[in-house]
Design a protein that fits this description.
single chain, 2 domains
């Protein structure tokens, strides 16, 4: 039985007789009116289409991990080097990929560019350091990889809606 149909029966009359027999033997009251008869050939064709769809999905999943690998390695590199200058060429070398592949992978996996991701992670890192209260805003700015304190302050305010001094001062 597949999709509510039964294989091995010759026609709709055979299907109705089969349903009546099941109803009688199990004391059921199902009507065969809603069941459409499909031949074994039609059911096999439908099963073949399902198999094709399944194979497509599986193959697609086998291809996607390359992007995921690139993104994972790039994120790993960024997270390990937040305090340093991060060059796209260094990320590409670390992830063993081209610039184009890196940008495509990030856009597809993260819905943002690499530079935007780096800024976001640096701001998160800065925020966690500011929460501890052990460092000044200028020190945090430098440790989070921002070479320009004013740029850091503008970016922080744009991202969080307040200056770093007001948020943690």
């Amino acid at each position: 039985m597949m999709f509510g149909q039964i294989t091995g029966l010759k026609d709709k009359t055979s299907l109705e007789e089969f349903v009546d027999k099941i109803n009688h033997s199990h004391n059921l009251k199902c009507t065969p009116k809603g069941i459409k008869y499909r031949s074994e050939r039609q059911i096999n064709a439908a099963a073949g289409l399902l198999e094709i769809c399944t194979n497509y999905i599986l193959l697609k999943e086998m291809i996607i991990p390359d992007n995921s690998r690139i993104t994972r390695l790039a994120k790993e590199y960024v997270n390990e080097n937040l305090s340093s200058e991060i060059k796209i060429s260094d990320i590409c070398e670390y992830a063993d990929t081209s610039r184009t592949k890196l940008y495509e992978a990030f856009k597809s996996d993260c819905n943002m560019g690499v530079a935007e991701y780096i800024r976001k992670k640096r701001l998160e890192y800065a925020c966690s350091m500011l929460k501890s209260g052990e460092l000044s805003v200028a020190e945090v700015s430098e440790k989070a990889g921002f070479s320009d304190y004013n740029y850091f302050s503008r970016l922080f305010k744009k991202h969080y809606g307040v200056s770093p001094h007001k948020k943690f001062g």
